[in-house]
Amino acid sequence: MAKIKAAILGFGTVGQGIYHIVNEKKEDLKKSLGLDIEISAILVNNLAKERIQTPGVLVTDDFEDIINIPGLQVVFEAIVNEEPAYGYLCKAIDKGCHVITANKVMFSKYSIPLHERAKSRGVFIGYEATTAGGVPVIKTLKNLLQVNSVKRIQGILNGTSNYILTQMRLNECQFNDALTEAQDLGYAEADPYNDISGQDAFRKLMILSALAFKKQPNWDDVRVVGIDGISLEDVKKAKQEGLRYRHVAEIEQDENGELFASVGPQLVGPDHPLYAIEAVNNAVALDTNYIGTLTLVGPGAGMYPTASVMVEDYAEIIGKRAGFMITI
User: Is 71 annotated as belonging to a binding site?
Assistant: First the structure.
């Protein structure tokens, strides 16, 4: 049986999740794909840091050790910032490796050049994990776009913000109390800026824009507003009127092909597709020309939702590698 050598870049929550799932599902992947995947190496930032045991796996802080592994075919990337992640993926693609990323910060900016680079090298990119975690919006959009065109996308793309707004309404608590609870539960980082400011949702929206419309709006033209300006009094008043605050990222293309995007709080009623989305769930509503509005709902973050869709990307890429066409 053929063996696929893979490497993991970054070994935080998501990287560890990939390692666990690949090993737990090794036999199932062998049966379904006829291939044996082996995690050959893991790139870490600090070799001295204590971490789970990974017997037989090279653990290194030098990317050159990774890229020089003979026969390396797949790279799972779970680093946080634009660099060095973008540089690493460029080198991996140039070597002929398929790449699978969860890095929304990097991919929102470089998705189009990375796809062009991958297409020229005959390799593939998986990026389901960059947007809405365990919600299969990327795969669904790719399938829809074979026949349908998308007119508008609306989404709750950040589970932390949605959790805070839900708790403020259900428990009638102040914003800071709901944020602290989210941090205690591991839904929010110690520095929650990207979540509560709307920057996280904005990056994900730009990834969806590149896929659905083959382009992005000028980033400076997109109004991005967070949820930290919503008070308990605002939430109570909305509740009395039968409305709910949702932090909505949306983008629409007009008849002339121009894109209009925004990210910010909206008041929605029971007839809105995002009204019933609670707690840390994400949701994406896709308005299409033939099937109407399709809404996808699921967990937006966490070790296993994110890592599992990365392994699913691997299975799709390897299973369809012959004659598979890259699309963005």
Answer: no
